[in-house]
Design brief:
The structure holds two protein chains of two kinds.
Chain A: E1 3-5, E2 10-14, E3 19-21, E4 24-26, E5 32-39, E6 46-52, E7 60-61, E8 64-69, E9 74-79, E10 88-96, E11 105-106, E12 110-115
Chain B: E1 5-7, E2 10-13, E3 19-24, E4 31-37, E5 44-50, E6 53-56, E7 65-68, E8 75-79, E9 88-95, E10 104-105, E11 109-113
Parallel strand pairs in B: 2-11
Antiparallel strand pairs in B: 1-3, 3-8, 4-5, 4-9, 5-6, 7-8, 9-10, 9-11
Classes of the chains: A mainly beta, B mainly beta.
């Protein structure tokens, strides 16, 4: 079974600084996707960034980028120039793209606080 | 484009009562998911529909939970009878056919069982 581990229950960062959230995963599959989702207090899960396992290039979306280390099964999220609106729970998630269903498997989340 | 709609946003019931949640996916999305998110944890898939057929319900407690997706559009998730451990946020998500990496979530329903 696939598992996703987020070892940092909480992180904090000063506004305008950079923070990195960690995620490791365990799978025996070769085709999969990895995601970072943001969940503010409103509870709506918002997709931040997506990485396809077969792509060696790390995904980037504006101030958000990932460091994908396939051999180490590591998938960290870097937030640059942190803003107050970035404060939220961040979840790392995985989908096996070679399976018969496409359920997201989530980690337990990291609560990010942004200090002004 | 309208997002995934869910109702109600909040629900408080006593144990052993029944409750139902409703989800309307993004128009044209063939696949619909119900996730349960217990406080302090990530969401866990309960059931996945493709059109009006069930793809995966392996983690749905079938003795008390049921779900349907009539006509392949709206879906209802029901709990009867509710237990204290069912207190959670219930998230609905949808994705276009075969585009499973594009799951869009609704705002969720927070259920409290007392």
């Amino acid at each position: 079974a696939q598992t996703v581990t987020q070892s940092q229950p909480e992180m904090s960062v000063q506004e305008a600084e950079t923070v990195t959230l960690s995620c490791t995963y365990d799978t025996s599959e070769s085709d999969y996707y990895l995601f970072w989702y943001k969940q503010p207090p409103s509870r709506q899960m918002i997709l931040v960034i997506r990485q396809e396992a077969y792509k060696q290039q790390n995904a980037t979306e504006n101030r958000f980028s990932v460091n994908f280390q396939k051999a180490a099964k590591s998938f960290s999220l870097k937030i640059s120039d942190s803003q107050l609106g970035d404060a939220a729970m961040y979840f790392c998630a995985y989908i096996n793209s070679g399976g018969s269903n496409y359920k997201l498997t989530f980690g337990k989340g990291t609560l990010l606080t942004v200090n002004p | 484009e309208a997002g995934v709609a869910q109702s109600p946003r909040y629900k408080i019931i006593e144990k052993r009562q029944s409750v139902a949640f409703w989800c309307n996916p993004i128009s044209g999305h063939a696949t619909l998911y119900w996730y349960q998110q217990i406080l302090g944890q990530g969401p866990k898939l309960l059931i996945q529909f493709q059109n009006n057929g069930v793809v995966d319900d392996s983690q749905l407690p079938k003795d008390r939970f049921s779900a349907e997706r009539l006509k392949g559009v709206d879906s209802t998730l029901k709990i009867q009878p509710a237990k204290l451990e069912d207190s959670a946020v219930y998230l609905c998500a949808s994705s276009p056919l075969l585009k499973f990496s594009e799951q869009y979530f609704g705002p969720g329903t927070r259920l409290t069982v007392t």
